[in-house]
Write a structure and sequence with these properties.
Number of domains: 1
Strand content: 5-15%
Order of helices and strands: HHHEHEEHHE
Strand order of the largest sheet: 1-4-3-2
Mean pLDDT: 91
Distance between the termini: 63 Å
Radius of gyration: 28 Å
Oligomer: single chain
Number of helices: 6
Largest sheet: 4 strands, antiparallel
Structural class: alpha+beta
Helix content: 40-55%
Number of strands: 4
Bound molecules: heme C
């Protein structure tokens, strides 16, 4: 073959190859829906592919609203109880009313929800964490260690006998007002220490310091048609 012809032939092959490879590049399909990025604290939900990603922010909003309502109610009642009955009186008040108040907020809500406070060190054994909650409690502790601060929330898919549900969790931090009942035992007045021990013989919710991670408040939300994939 003439050298000139050979050059023409090989460059033809090269052009054909480039075209072929070029054609195999996946073209973006304008019809395919673009997945929004996975919101913070929802990696488990995104991976599960049970919940529509574009609905996750709305679940966060619903969770925040319901847990806000519980926390505001409990705090208001706690402050009023301490003011009118003193710390020991407020302990009695918490022990008889905290769970009833939780149920009241729950039943007054516009949709069926399940509210709970829990911790790895509980005072009331009725607040002990289940396996799902224990995983999330540990997750918050690890995140605090890794990032130096607590994430604002976590979303978890709960499956089992019932239809899938989503739990929204938010962390509780020890504030100054909490210390009189959850602070160091050594700094509690004798009468208070004795009253707590009498009501809660298995109490582990003491010796906390200001800004410690105390536990979680969580709400379980049911998933409507609109949220499910
Ligand atoms: C007057 C005493 C008192 C104060 C102040 C107080 N608590 Fe408690 N706390 C209790 C008692 C009693 C219980 C157990 C009864 C219950 O609430 O279910 C409890 C339970 C809890 C629980 C549920 C888990 C468990 O240990 O049983 C959490 C979470 C909690 N407290 C957080 C806080 C935080 C956060 C503050 C400050 C904003 C606070 N508490 C202030 C007395 C107190």
């Amino acid at each position: 073959m003439e050298p000139m012809l050979r050059v023409v032939k090989w460059s033809g092959v090269c052009v054909a190859l480039v075209l072929l490879v070029g054609c195999q590049k996946p073209k973006p399909n304008p019809e395919a829906p673009i997945e929004p990025p996975c919101p913070d604290g929802a990696s488990e939900l995104c991976a599960s592919k049970v919940v529509r990603r574009e609905r996750i922010e709305q679940l966060v909003e619903r969770g925040k609203k319901a847990t806000d309502q519980l926390l505001v109610t409990l705090k208001r009642q706690l402050v009023a109880a301490i003011k009118s009955r003193g710390t020991i009186g407020a302990i009695e008040f918490c022990s008889t009313n905290a769970l009833t108040l939780t149920r009241t907020v729950q039943t007054a809500w516009s949709e069926p929800i399940a509210l709970k406070r829990t911790s790895l060190r509980v005072r009331n054994p009725k607040n002990a964490p289940d396996a799902f909650e224990r995983t999330v409690l540990r997750w918050f502790i690890e995140q605090k260690k890794a990032r130096g601060k607590l994430p604002s929330h976590y979303l978890q898919l709960v499956t089992g006998a019932k239809a899938p549900r989503v739990r929204y969790y938010r962390p509780l931090v020890v504030q100054a007002i909490c210390l009189s009942c959850h602070g160091p035992r050594s700094s509690m007045p004798d009468a208070l220490r004795k009253r707590i021990a009498a009501l809660y013989p298995a109490d582990r919710a003491f010796d906390y310091k200001l800004n410690d991670f105390r536990g979680l408040v969580r709400v379980e939300l049911s998933l409507g048609e609109a949220e499910r994939r």
